Amino acid sequence: MGTVKWDGSESTNSSDPANWSTGAIPVGGDDVVFDATSDSGNHCVLNFTTSAPTFPEDGNDLNSITIGSDFTKQIQTGAACEVNLEGIITINKPACIKNGHALTFDFNAAPSTTVYDGNGTSYSYKPFVVFSSGMTSSVFENTDARANTTFNFGSQNFSMVDGVYPNVTFTGILYAKRIYSDNAKTEFNTYGSVDILNFNGGQVKSSSFNIYDYEKEYYFEKDLTSLGEYFQFGHTTARFKTYRSSGTGSVTFPVTGELKSAAFGNDTTNNFYTQYHKVIIENNDSSSNYWLVSAGLTLECNELVISDGGRFYGPSSGTKAVAIRSVKRPTVQGDWNFRQTADGIYESIGDSSNTPVFHGGTGRQTLTKNTVLCGDGMNRVVLVNDLNLSLPFIYQRDSLGNNAYDLRSVAAAASSSSLNAYPMAAAGKVIAFSISSGGTSISADANNQTFEVRTNGGSGTNILFSRNDMTNTNGTNYTYTTTGLSISFAANDQLQVRRTAGSLVFGNVNVILYVRYD
């Protein structure tokens, strides 16, 4: 494929071949260039007719897009559009994208631009977007254009050149690292930070730490969603600005162990790891918004700066304290609610100290008497009552006709003299009932059969079901189960089950009562 330049000589329509230097619209594999070729022409409007929602229109991937410093027009949209790329986009012209509609750049292959770390070594993780030396401000003409744009980096691993980015989404790994255009440490541009709107991310990691990384900054201006298991910035700086799409109030700050109702971390293991060198809390988007670290969690960093207008809090009072562990004394020009408890240790005011699971604790301030602890990733440890455990008690009878019979509590189920009850060791509840019958064929029947769960030979709670409610598992084997029961009993009560009504004949009956002690 070849290089195709926009000249805009006929109109603004990107679907018109006459507007391109080759006399044909771009196709997959082409390198598309926007430069001075269009000086005497028109702006480029993608999806001009609303019938070409992808660029290129053949649905394949461009090899690259280059926007030169001598480009004097703009890239605009006629309707929502998706740009497909295999390679990179190189941008060297501010304010040249002005889209009034959703514009998504899908990067569908691994990036290929060679970059270097501060030691002059080629770095493995490459950028998709290269903002060149002319990019001292945003590529977007206004804030609406930026908000309407998304860079989708897919499942690839990558790094980022300094510059103003729109919304970013990916499922791979962003490597936080200061990178250069050559082994002599030449900067791509002088902008000074990676600015991101909504960050719908996979994971953030860092590798090959060095002193040059201290000058790299990542600035998160809006929502943080779908963060992966790792959110780790090495020696770089992470800057945060609060944002709420509606209402005002708290915004959850990402620290180790913060799952944010599955919005952060690994949903299978319930783990979320953060690592910060320097954290800067920027002036909020609204004076009513603030960052909130969830109760019992800890922020660890080398340095914390709360800028003028920034607000950073733990819980208000009366709960598990939030801790900050900072090597340097925090710089607080905004507001917070922490007090120093030891050298480098700060806790939220009015709360009680607590050690989360990640730091070797339980995440709890009290343990219920006689409970067992169980792990749940970085969530606080689970108590046995939280596990919904139950004990099974088995009752049997070799045959049940249509008379009222007690089921037996021992293996000699056929004997009428066998015991028919279990003594309860403590107070509790029957939470489920299960019955199986085998050896006798039972025809379909909608009439209810009644079994009674009772104590001490008295009246109890009826369990009603019909043959039609039972599952025919194999041949003459049938089962039925009901859950969600709450049949109370006291310590030393005799727990019993009996057949009280119904016309069906059951053979070789097993009933299991599932019991949970209080």
What does this structure look like?
The protein is mainly beta. Among the domains are: 1-109, no CATH class; 409-517. Helices cover 1% and strands 38% of the residues. The chain has 1 helix and 46 strands. Strands 1, 2, 4, 5, 7, 9, 10, 11, 14, 17 and 20 form an 11-stranded parallel beta sheet that branches. It is elongated and about 100 Å long. The N and C termini lie far apart (74 Å). The mean pLDDT is 93.
Brief sketch in words of this structure:
With 518 residues, the chain is mainly beta. It is built from 1 helix and 46 strands.
- How is the main sheet built? 11 strands, parallel
Query: How many angstroms does the end-to-end distance come to?
Result: 74 Å
- DSSP summary, beta strand count: 46
Helix content: under 10%
Q: What does the average pLDDT come to?
A: 93
Shape verdict: elongated
Quickly give the structural class: mainly beta
